[in-house]
Design goal:
Blueprint: H1 27-64, H2 70-100, H3 107-116, H4 118-139, H5 141-149, H6 153-159, H7 164-174, H8 179-211, H9 217-229, H10 231-247, H11 260-270
């Protein structure tokens, strides 16, 4: 099996069913099949959270933050992503859990599981960010090395119901002896973010110069940003599929993922 093989288009991929993918299908191929089948659902999980967040950021940039205050814009973006954007990340992973297991994902379940795992995702993102910043400040290379080894931490936090240090340790276990492979996946994922940002700048900045007198431009900016961020959904999918491939000998995934009835019952008890 070649795990780096591009998506295949043989007879096993001709329909939208995920029940018959080949046992030796590469994570790239499985990610492509899941995207084909559940693209709309995954994008909805992303938009439900990020549409209001993008509108908030665009409005703040247009009417609240000074035009040349880039640091304030970045702080706002990071804060919104850190506190609220992770809900979308959790919902996407929850959808992928069902899709990868040949179940039928539901938005209600995806967000219920994301909310239940919110604390685990939050602590994981906090630990990863804090350690990565320290590593970058030291010599840059340690920070990059850490981010590559911890690249599956978010997926692990949701799928295995673990938090910060535990999720990071599990990611390090899965990537032991696989740094080159993990670095390749990280480059693919990070490239999607960079390309989305470059495409957004190429369209929005000239538009502001030409149409700056239009007060509604901030709404268009938010919508354009969302359109160019859609490829990020594939990055989440690819990361999850590689995580599942690396975890196949252990199958931690099946131990702590509740059913919809269990989630509903737990929410009733909490209320």
């Amino acid at each position: 099996m070649d795990p780096y093989a591009p998506p295949s288009f043989d007879h096993s991929f001709a329909n939208d069913s995920l029940d018959d993918w080949p046992a030796d299908a590469s994570p790239f191929s499985i990610a492509w099949m899941i995207i084909r089948k559940y693209f709309g659902l995954l994008v909805i999980c992303y938009l439900i959270v990020w549409l209001p967040l993008e509108l908030i950021m665009s409005y703040a940039e247009a009417f609240v933050i000074e035009a040349d205050d880039v640091s304030a814009t970045l702080r706002l973006q990071q804060s919104l992503g850190f506190w609220f954007g992770i809900i979308a990340d959790g919902a996407i992973v929850a959808t992928l859990i069902d899709a990868y297991s040949h179940s039928h994902p539901k938005i209600s379940y995806s967000f219920a599981l994301s909310w239940k795992r919110y604390g685990k995702i939050w602590t994981t993102r906090l630990c990863v960010g804090f350690i990565a910043v320290i590593g970058v400040l030291l010599l840059v290379i340690p920070g990059i090395y850490f981010l590559v080894r911890a690249i599956y931490a978010d997926s692990i936090a949701v799928a295995e119901n673990t938090h910060g240090p535990t999720a990071i340790r599990r990611s390090f276990e899965l990537t032991r002896g696989r740094f080159g492979e993990s670095f390749l996946i990280a480059v693919v994922v990070w490239s999607s973010y960079v390309l989305a940002a470059m495409a957004w700048c190429a369209i929005v900045i000239p538009a502001y110069i030409v149409l700056e007198e239009y007060t509604w431009l901030w709404i268009a900016e938010a919508i354009v940003a969302l359109i160019f961020e859609i490829p990020i959904v594939y990055s989440h999918t690819l990361l999850y599929c590689w995580y599942r491939r690396l975890d196949e000998p252990n199958q931690h995934i099946h131990t702590d993922v509740p059913t919809w009835d269990e989630l509903r019952d737990s929410n009733r008890v909490m209320s």
